[in-house]
Amino acid sequence: MLKIEIMNLTYAYIFLILAIAFEVISTSFLKDTNGFTRFYPSLVVIVALCICLFLMSHSMKFIPVGIVYASWAGLGIVAITIIAVFKYNQVPNIPTMIGIALIVIGVVVVNLMNDIDVK
Predict the structure, then answer these.
(1) Does residue 5 surpass a pLDDT of 70?
(2) Are 61 and 12 in contact, with CB atoms under 8 Å apart?
(3) Please, what sign has the CA dihedral across residues 43, 55, 110, 104?
(4) How far apart are CA 59 and CA 90, in angstroms?
(5) Less Cβ around it within 10 Å: N or C end of the chain?
């Protein structure tokens, strides 16, 4: 069993960033699974998502659940939208880009205006 003892707010944010990266990897391969009928893309999705959730659970030891989830979901949406532009040629329209900009602003506000107790 993996035991993480040396944990503080800095490590929690590093874990959160890594969790977001693994979520983006997982989601970017989701369409390639073809409904989980293709083995290797499905394996990437499952493994990356498991790592993502493991890292998120550890970041929640120091960062409130709402802040972790808002950051994870918001930044994941932005990253996947950017990947979809290049991978699937799915270019968002202007209202969608405005909405995504508002998501980024929301993530920044949530992270800068929180009152996390640093232990």
Answers:
(1) no
(2) yes
(3) negative
(4) 32
(5) N
80 and 27 Cβ atoms separated by less than 8 Å:
yes
Of 58, 60, 107, 57, which is closest to residue 79 (Cα–Cα)? 107
The radius of gyration of the chain from alpha carbons, rounded to an integer in Å, stands at 16
Q: What is the DSSP code (8-state) at residue 71? A: H
Alpha-carbon gap, residue 49 to 42, rounded angstroms: 11
pLDDT digits (tens, 9 = 90+) for 8-33: 889 999 999 999 999 999 999 999 99
How do the domains of the chain map onto residue ranges?
Answer: 9-112
CA-to-CA distance for 102 and 8, rounded, in angstroms? Answer: 29
Instruction: Give the whole-angstrom CA distance, residue 89 versus residue 86.
Output: 5
DSSP state for residue 10 in the 8-state scheme: H
- Report the distance separating Cα 67 and Cα 108, nearest Å: 10
